[in-house]
């Protein structure tokens, strides 16, 4: 992505946990090689048990890799002693699904904790805490205890605490999975600010595709300990290559009708159906209106959706085309040829959706 | 009850009980905290997991705890002599009480730590805190409320132990009740002592509950 040296670099990293009571060892992370560029929001997505939590804990050395090399900010983490690892950890912020705040300390006390660990003098500590609480918008809660806060407020305290020692990297482990949708958006907005205003690299672990969709620049998809796909968020969504990715995309975007939905659509709309994909510049609907007019026919949107991925428009529309048979035929030929649309045929002579990754994934899900 | 005659003896017995409770609670509390934290952190998968340390502590606690205190009091005689210099008297009884209280409290400490959310400890590790710092600034403060309640529970156990101090000449109000109440067929003395003990226990429990509530921050 960039020519600069990556801020986090994993080379052939594996983590094997010994089996419990003589059971078979579990390979949580299996030969993973990824680079995370400075300043990006990098998403690691996968179902529970895919190894993403272990992967992110290898970056800040909460877990020690069984093999492979991990480099963080130019320094090799693997092979370091416990004391050196503590310094590595102190330089990387982390937030958690269950917030993990200390109930025995006030909000200010929680945010000050990493500063105490870093031996920051009292006066500087107080100033830094005030600054951080201001940044996350919780100045008035400084003296409250975590039990008195809502989930979203707790996570904002978690973020302030993680940023206290001005780390260059922030690890977010399912940081919105315990929050309701509205609060999730607040926290994601805050994370985006952390990235944009403070230039902090963020590694987001999630099983929620919507999180990835709204904030990640690049993503890695994990399955059974392996990274099966890495790429720009938009590209991975637009053209998933691995079945696991396709399943995730299908679970998040519902713009393409599944076979069952398509069958119901045909029952209601016996005419010619066409599926038109959104272009990343958002020009599809203007093009559609123009082309329909040129052919003197009408189109009715019967299914679809347009949303954003990585701040670019994404989605598709399914239309029923109405008009003289020849005009419809000419229109379909043109949109298939020039806009990559998919001809779904009519109820009496259907043509199925080609087995694209997304549809394929949906069927196998 | 003849207060003129028994008053000074009773006051002395109260002072002896206070002495035994104070030192046994203080030393026993520290021993219990140390062993309990040791058990917790050395358990496999925890902060300083160490199979050998855990096994040694665990077996030690399991050996000492089931011994009835009255037998323990005599059984550790040689150790008491080595440390205190004598096997009789209030100091000797206090030594045995402190040890027994320590082993008893260690299990309460361990239980309360086990129920802590491991995520909070992980968060502290992620901030680069050392194990000792985590023990002192995360483990104990986070478990403070249940630890206070456990300590209050321990106080009542130690008060119970102090009643047996009389067997090795340790004195105290328990001994007073037996000597001047039971053995003199003076029920009034017995019930006055029982009343005093109930009041002490009630006050201790009230204080414990109050402090635990303060520590909860809810």
From TrEMBL, chain A:
It holds the Pfam family ABC_tran. It comes from Miniimonas arenae. One of its GO terms (biological process) is amino acid transport. SUPFAM superfamilies: ACT-like, P-loop containing nucleoside triphosphate hydrolases. The keyword Ligase does not apply. Residues 343-365 are annotated as: Disordered. GO terms for molecular function: ATP binding; ATP hydrolysis activity. It comes from the Bacteria. Keywords: Amino-acid transport, ATP-binding, Cell membrane, Membrane, Nucleotide-binding, Translocase, Transport. Signal peptide: none annotated. InterPro entries: AAA+_ATPase, ABC_transporter-like_ATP-bd, ABC_transporter-like_CS, ACT-like_dom_sf, MetN_ABC, MetN_ABC_transporter-like, NIL_domain, P-loop_NTPase. This is Methionine ABC transporter ATP-binding protein. The keyword ATP-binding applies. Residues 8-249 form the ABC transporter domain.
UniProtKB/TrEMBL annotation, chain B:
Keywords: Cell membrane, Membrane, Transmembrane, Transmembrane helix, Transport. The chain crosses the membrane at residues 20-41, 53-76, 82-105, 143-168, 188-212. InterPro entries: AA_ABC_Transporter_Permease, MetI-like, MetI-like_sf. It is a multi-pass membrane protein. The keyword NAD does not apply. SUPFAM superfamilies: MetI-like. GO terms for cellular component: plasma membrane. Residues 14-208 form the ABC transmembrane type-1 domain. The keyword Membrane applies. Gene3D superfamilies: MetI-like. It is found in: Cell membrane. GO terms for biological process: D-methionine transmembrane transport. Belongs to the binding-protein-dependent transport system permease family. This is ABC transporter permease. The lineage of its organism: Bacteria, Bacillati, Actinomycetota, Actinomycetes, Micrococcales.
């Amino acid at each position: 992505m960039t020519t600069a040296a990556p801020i986090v670099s994993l080379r052939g990293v594996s983590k094997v946990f010994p089996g419990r009571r003589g059971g078979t060892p579990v390979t949580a992370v299996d030969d993973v090689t990824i680079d995370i560029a400075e300043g990006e929001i990098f998403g690691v997505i996968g179902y529970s048990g895919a190894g993403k939590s272990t992967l992110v804990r290898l970056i800040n050395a909460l877990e020690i890799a069984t093999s492979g090399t991990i480099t963080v900010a130019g320094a090799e983490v693997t092979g370091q002693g416990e004391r050196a690892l503590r310094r590595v950890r102190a330089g990387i912020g982390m937030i958690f699904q269950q917030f993990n705040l200390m109930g025995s300390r006030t909000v200010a006390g929680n945010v000050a904790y990493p500063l105490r660990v870093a031996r920051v003098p009292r006066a500087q500590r107080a100033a830094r805490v005030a600054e951080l609480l201001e940044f996350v918008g919780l100045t008035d809660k400084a003296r409250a205890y975590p039990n008195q806060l809502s989930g979203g407020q707790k996570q904002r305290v978690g973020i302030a605490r993680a940023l206290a020692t001005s780390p260059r990297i922030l690890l977010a482990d399912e940081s919105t999975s315990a929050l309701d949708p509205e609060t999730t958006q607040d926290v994601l907005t805050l994370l985006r600010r952390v990235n944009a205003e403070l230039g902090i690299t963020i590694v987001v672990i999630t099983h929620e595709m919507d999180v990835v969709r709204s904030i990640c620049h690049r993503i890695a998809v994990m399955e059974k300990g392996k990274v099966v796909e890495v790429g720009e968020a938009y590209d991975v969504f637009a053209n998933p290559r691995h079945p696991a990715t396709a399943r995730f995309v299908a679970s998040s975007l519902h713009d393409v009708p599944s076979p069952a939905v398509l069958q119901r659509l045909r029952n209601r709309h016996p005419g010619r159906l066409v599926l038109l994909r959104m272009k990343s510049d958002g020009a599809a609907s203007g093009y559609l209106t123009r082309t329909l007019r040129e052919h003197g026919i009408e189109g009715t949107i019967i299914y679809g959706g347009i949303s954003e991925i990585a701040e670019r428009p994404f989605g598709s529309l399914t239309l029923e085309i109405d008009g003289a048979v020849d005009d419809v035929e000419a229109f379909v030929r043109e949109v298939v040829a020039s806009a990559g649309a998919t001809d779904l045929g009519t109820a009496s002579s259907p043509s199925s959706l080609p087995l694209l990754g997304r549809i394929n994934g949906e069927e196998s899900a | 009850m003849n207060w003129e005659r028994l008053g000074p003896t009773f006051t002395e017995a109260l002072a002896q009980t206070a002495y035994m409770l104070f030192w046994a609670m203080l030393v026993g509390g520290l021993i219990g905290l140390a062993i309990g934290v040791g058990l917790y952190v050395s358990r496999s998968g925890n902060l300083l997991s160490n199979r050998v340390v855990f096994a040694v502590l665990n077996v030690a606690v399991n050996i000492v705890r089931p011994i009835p205190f009255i037998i323990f009091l005599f059984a550790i005689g040689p150790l008491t002599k080595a440390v205190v210099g004598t096997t009789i008297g209030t100091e000797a009884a206090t030594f045995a009480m402190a040890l027994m209280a320590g082993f008893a409290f260690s299990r309460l400490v361990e239980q309360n730590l086990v129920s802590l959310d491991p995520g909070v400890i992980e968060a502290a590790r992620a901030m680069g805190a050392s194990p000792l710092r985590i023990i002192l600034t995360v483990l104990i403060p986070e478990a403070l409320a249940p630890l206070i309640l456990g300590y209050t529970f321990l106080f009542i156990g130690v008060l119970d132990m102090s009643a047996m101090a009389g067997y090795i000449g340790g004195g105290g109000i328990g001994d007073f009740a037996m000597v001047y109440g039971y053995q003199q067929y003076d029920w009034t003395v017995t019930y006055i002592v029982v009343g005093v003990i109930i009041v002490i226990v009630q006050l201790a429990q009230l204080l414990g509950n109050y402090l635990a509530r303060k520590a909860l921050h809810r």
